[in-house]
Design goal:
Blueprint: H1 4-32, H2 35-39, H3 43-50, H4 54-61, H5 64-88, H6 93-109, H7 113-123, H8 133-155, H9 165-179, H10 185-188, H11 192-203
Helix pairs in contact: 1-3, 1-5, 5-6, 5-8, 6-8, 6-11, 8-9
Length: 208
Amino acid sequence: MRDRRQVINLNGFEKRTEEKKKKVLEAAFELMNRTEEGKNITMDKIAKHANVGKATLFKYFGSKDNLIHEVFKYYLEKMIDTAKDIMNENKPFDETLIALSQNKIQFLNQINQSFYLKMMAYLTEKDEEGWSVMMQKYTRENYGMMLDLFHRGRKEGRVDIKYSDEFLLLYFQAIVEGISSPQIYERIASYTEEWTEMLIKGIAPGRD
């Protein structure tokens, strides 16, 4: 049985390891978002930018492809975590939906088109059974939050009860995937409140 000092030392080592990994992921993300660097990114460049040895990169990530995939996952998890923070504020339905929409736009504005296209290609990459594991995970977490939000909206009288959960998720997915298109997302940022307002009006109870 480990004594208390061994456990503390192990936890400290794990914490330093995670911090170093995060540092590498942030450095790789920055390079991938630079037009010139992103096209010719190498482990040497990433190691130099992160101020770590190249051997450390291979130790933590195994290969450049694995590291790039981890960057995509890291970026998406940050976006999901920020969305969860917004949900946990428990503000009214309309305010929360606008905040979530702005959050997505802000994250999209952090990346260039090349990064976005590569990330989407990775997200939709299918396994041998024809499933995209990453997209399933991201979609499941995102839909869970949206269901909670729509249930909140029903309680507040802001979402018509005639719309099923399934329809609301499809409706929201259609909107989000539309604005996430590379041809659209760079132009939609200044209209966040407008299209969010239209989304809210579209699912609001009718006034007979």
